[in-house]
Amino acid sequence: MKRFYPWLIAGFISLLGILQAINDLGDAAISLINFIFFMVFILDAILLSFMGALIVIRQDGNKVGWLMMVVAIAFVDPFRLLSSSFSTAPINMSAGLWLLLWIQNWFWILTIATIFLIVLYFPDGSLLSTRWNWLNMVALGTLFLAALAPVLKEQIGPITNDWLVDNPTGILPSSVVNDGSLSWAIGLLILGGGSLASIFFRFRRGSYVEREQIKWLLFAGAIFCWL
């Protein structure tokens, strides 16, 4: 039964991607360029989800597979589909809407951090050595600060900044919180630099098979950055 769960998750991610595509296709306001951009992300999400499921099933305990599925969910961005129903500022802030806005405001940072963690754990799902474990702490600290920011801001809204409403949990001016975003930005830079350094040392010390796998990872990363 455990072997079925990864495929079920991959299928769910694919379904979300299809729903996103249908929603975008029916949006007369969306430009052709943005539609193509979203479709590329959705196709990437479907591909990543099934690749991640395959890794999870074939290599039990390999964290890379689960990390790929996290990135796939982020690419599909189910919160964008939900928030599209709120094109204007609501009259009353419900708990459900606040939770949706809170997640949407920091979810993209989770995407970037997870991509760096894939690089850190690639290809066998383990760290190069225990000395690299501090990067996991950097990732957790960065995500904590990023998730805390929307809670503290006096106003909150969708990530598109189409509108803002008073935040029931906010106690600090948005300008102060935005200035504090430098902390998690530095965290992402450290995490990214450390992950790249790790893959560099892994390439130098790895076997022929590992080096070929790393080459494919770098090739896929170059294509993603180009897109």
Category by helix and strand content: mainly alpha
Strand order of the largest sheet: 1-2
Mean pLDDT: 84
Largest sheet: 2 strands, antiparallel
Low-confidence stretches: none
Task: Report strand %.
Answer: under 5%
- How many helical elements? 9
Helical fraction: over 70%
* Integer-rounded radius of gyration: 19 Å
What does this molecule look like?
With 227 residues, the chain is mainly α. 73% of the residues lie in helices and 2% in strands. The chain is built from nine helices and two strands. It has helices at residues 4-25, 32-58, 63-76, 78-83, 95-121, 134-152, 174-180, 182-205, 208-226; strands at 155-156, 165-166. The protein has a two-stranded antiparallel ribbon. β1 (155-156) and β2 form a beta hairpin. The relative contact order is 0.10. The model has no long low-confidence stretch (mean pLDDT 84).
Q: In terms of topology, how is this protein built?
A:
Elements: H1 4-25, H2 32-58, H3 63-76, H4 78-83, H5 95-121, H6 134-152, E1 155-156, E2 165-166, H7 174-180, H8 182-205, H9 208-226
Antiparallel strand pairs: 1-2
Question: What's a quick, concise take on this entry?
Answer:
The protein is mainly alpha-helical and 227 residues long. The protein has 9 helices and 2 strands, in the order H-H-H-H-H-H-E-E-H-H-H. The radius of gyration is 19 Å and the shape is globular.
Descriptors:
227 residues, mainly alpha, two-stranded antiparallel sheet, 9 helices, 2 strands, 73% helix, 2% strand, globular
